[in-house]
Write a structure and sequence with these properties.
The structure is a single chain. This protein has helices spanning 4-22, 35-38, 228-233, and strands spanning 43-49, 55-62, 74-81, 87-91, 96-102, 107-112, 121-126, 129-136, 142-147, 153-160, 182-189, 198-199, 205-211, 217-223, 236-241, 247-250, 257-262, 268-273, 284-289, 296-298, 305-313, 316-323, 326-333, 340-345, 348-355, 361-367, 370-377, 385-387, 403-409, 416-422. It is mainly beta. A four-stranded antiparallel β-sheet has the order 1-2-3-4. It has a four-stranded antiparallel β-sheet with strand order 5-6-7-8, with no helix packed on it.
Amino acid sequence: MRKTYYQKTLQAGLILAFILLNAFHVNVFAQSLTPDHIAKIKTVSGCVISDDGKLVAYTVSVPADPFKENSGSKNGLYVLNTTSGETKPYFTSSGVGNVVFRPLKGTITFLSKSNDESVNAIYEMNISGGEATKIFSTTANILNYSWQPDGKHIAYTVKEDSKAPQTPLNYKPDFFEEEMGTQKGYMVDLASEKKEAKLINVNGSVYMMSWSNDGSKLAVSVTPTLSVDDSYMKQQVLVVDANTGNAIATIDNQGKLGQILWSPDNKQLALKAAKDLNDPTDGSILLVSAEGGKPMIIDAGFLGKYEHISWNDPNAIHFHASEGTASSLGFIRVDGSGKQTLFKSGDYAITGFARALNGTIAFVASSASHPAELFTIANTKNAKFFKRTNNNSWLSGITLGKQEVVRYKARDGKYEIEGIVMYPVNYVAGTKVPLIVVAHGGLKPITAMAG
């Protein structure tokens, strides 16, 4: 679950807030969005769905009160019963991340850190609720982890040999590329008594990790260093033997990388990645043999960006894509044929996606009238989607400005450019008001209508 979901929504909200404030003279009696409102907006920041589609675990990002503390937002864990529609808070005392349904165990695991601990740990909770139990920790913060399909082993990463610089500042700054150290990957059997960690024996820093469905191998992405440039452009995919920790195959991928997924038969890897080194996005689907080689792109003529993918069966891949300012959900065969769109809308900006084995889809989306909330939809064409959460009911009393999509041709006449105009509340055509332009860099789709 990525923090960028909240950042996108917050950015859109801030833009709208500043426009509204600068144009407040339009109607002083309208209850418009203010900076104080922005500081209390809650957003659904990610979701995962159980294999049977009956439960969705999702996180809600809650901003810290800026009048009380200088801190970032905190993710609380909630669970939705898709049959009854009931939602329950599961863990809200501390922030959570990397939420997963543990394979074969019927439990939920996540990363969290209590106030009296110096590092985080992996916690586990029963579906029925109760106390969270710490099941694994180490001497450093766990950056991410992935369950082997047997539900007993995990692969995880930690940062080693790095130290945060000392600072006299009275807030918590983020440091980049200062005494970077190395990001190491390990595997551990949590069913064993000693829980001895086995090093993933590769040169460089480990980022992504994906287990094969039979648990015998692990696909990892590795960079030469922890620099930002390397993390964007030099994530090399390797296949590692789970017994030895040694690399046994190399994937000749280039450029940006967003996902690594094993096919159900363990013969192929699907990459959501750049089509080549010069591609500014990780928005294509590429397939490659698990034994190594050069990935081949499918659907090369697609003008949008694949945002998230998951295997449906050995011959088909489900996707969430952006097409201009619109979002879509669908699937495509591995040879690039048979592409079908199950859902497409220019009114919702989808930012999170999870699919159950029975085809039920959970996704996170915002619109012009609300920030990111949780939705579900059946895996059938033209299926009706259901909005499952409403974390900012107070927004019903706020007057928001109109949003609309604008399109125009680029100067070379070859491409159509799209953007979103957010108007002040009660804007009167022809009235001059301050304009803020947020230029979206790079050749990639923009966020759709956002609350």
